[in-house]
Amino acid sequence: MAITETRSLPPQFVEDLGKDYATQLTGLTSQKLDTTQFQPMVAGQDQAQTDAYNLATTQGQGIGAYAPYLTQAGAYGTAAANLSGPTAYSSFMSPYQKDVIDATMSEYDTQAAKGITGIGLNAAKSGNLGGGREGVMRSEYQNKSDLNRALLQSGMLQQGFQNAQQAANTAFGQQQQLGADQQRMAQLVPNLYGSDVATLQQAGTGQQLQEQQILDQQREANRMAAYEPYERLGYMGAGMGNVMGGAMGQYQSQITPNQSPLQQAIGIASLGYGMTKGNA
Q1: CA atoms of 15 and 27, how far apart (whole Å)
Q2: How far is it, in rounded angstroms, from Cα 170 to Cα 176?
Q3: Which of these, 92, 96, 112, 240, could form a disulfide with 167 (CB 3.0-4.6 Å)?
């Protein structure tokens, strides 16, 4: 007896699509995907960050930032100490003071001698030359002259001393002020370096983030380009599934295969048995 077999076969265009899809899928997946094109990358340090690091490690931190100013402050303090005490004025005495005093006193002595001479001339005119009155006048004049001479000399020495002392005090104050300025600089400079470091670091970090974003965008673009063929095949496969699903429901083929001798014999025997049973 013949057996009828029903098969659902896709149309030819569906088979062609399937073969093309399989060929493309096999060819694409047989190639190793180069993942280095979209591996994560880290943007390098910006130059501003490098400068900030160098500034922070070489000058901006530690004793190196303020030590030179403390050293200079100490030097000014030593100089100020040398400008104090009873002999501090001596280095500020004018080198010409002795010459000035000597010249002044010499002139004074000349003028004083003229005064003595005048007394003698006046005594001669009055007829008292060599008398007691002339001697008293000479003595009084000499005493007064000597006193004035001493006052003049001491006055010039005192003036020189005061000038030197004032100059020493001025220099002392200046050295102290310079030392205080250096101490303030020792405190200020690290803060200034720190501010510079922070500014450079902030600017460099912003630039590094920008570079990182560029790298990330490029990596994403590379990833999309690498996976585009796979996504395209994915869309193709999804579309083929829809097409094949509809086509399989529309096309059917009925096939009646030839029976083998054994199948025929079994069929005849079954038929005879059925008829015998019916007659009984």
Answers
A1: 18
A2: 10
A3: 92
Q: Could you list the pLDDT tens digit for every one of the 280 residues in the chain?
A: 455 666 666 677 777 888 888 888 888 888 888 888 888 888 998 999 898 888 888 765 555 667 788 888 888 888 888 888 877 778 888 877 888 888 988 998 898 888 777 766 666 666 555 556 666 777 787 888 889 889 998 898 888 888 888 988 999 999 999 989 888 888 888 788 888 888 999 999 999 999 999 999 999 999 899 889 888 888 888 887 776 665 544 444 444 455 554 445 445 444 444 444 444 4
Say if residues 226 and 97 touch (Cβ distance below 8 Å): no
> Is the model's pTM score more than 0.70?
no
Q: Dihedrals φ, ψ of 13, to 5°?
A: -65, -30
A 10 A CB-CB count for 73 gives 20
Cross-strand partners of 253? 7
Rounded Cα distance between 39 and 33, Å, is 12
Nearest to residue 90, comparing CAs of 155, 16, 171?
A: 171
Could you give phi then psi for residue 128, rounded to 5 degrees?
-110, 15
Report CA 75 to chain centroid distance, whole Å: 31
